[in-house]
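Milestone 3.1: sequence recovery, worked example.
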């Protein structure tokens, strides 16, 4: 059992399990019934996505300074009690079932999914390399 950090739109890997859509916005022009078939996600879970205000203020991220600002603000959002409980839940589930979190961004290094992966790792999640 393990947690994968993935890019939505890429085919599921064997054993990847349930994909949690840790994104603020659902994909445009795609029927909800088609999300899994299009390799997006199985369940939408925006609780671990950047806030709408943070996205509007910081996207697209084009340089390192902008990334540092986004990262600092997103980490602050993830310190809320609700976010901490959700992170702890996902970390605990990673020891009992296969699941994945992800986003649509092309560059994993400048995407909130990399931050989530680090946070979940610190909470002891079983993360697939």
């Amino acid at each position: 059992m393990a947690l994968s950090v993935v890019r939505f739109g890429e085919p599921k890997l064997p054993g990847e399990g349930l994909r949690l859509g840790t994104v603020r916005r659902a994909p445009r022009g795609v029927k909800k019934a088609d999300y899994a078939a299009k390799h997006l996600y199985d369940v939408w879970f925006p609780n671990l996505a950047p806030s709408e205000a943070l996205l509007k203020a910081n996207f697209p991220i084009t340089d390192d300074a902008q990334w540092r600002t986004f990262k600092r603000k997103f980490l602050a959002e993830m310190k809320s009690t609700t976010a901490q409980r959700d992170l702890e839940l996902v970390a605990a589930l990673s020891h009992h079932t296969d699941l994945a979190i992800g986003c649509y961004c092309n560059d994993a290094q400048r995407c909130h999914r990399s931050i989530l992966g680090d946070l979940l790792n610190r909470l002891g999640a079983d993360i697939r390399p």
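Strands lie at 3-7, 18-21, 43-44, 99-103. The chain has one domain: 3-122.
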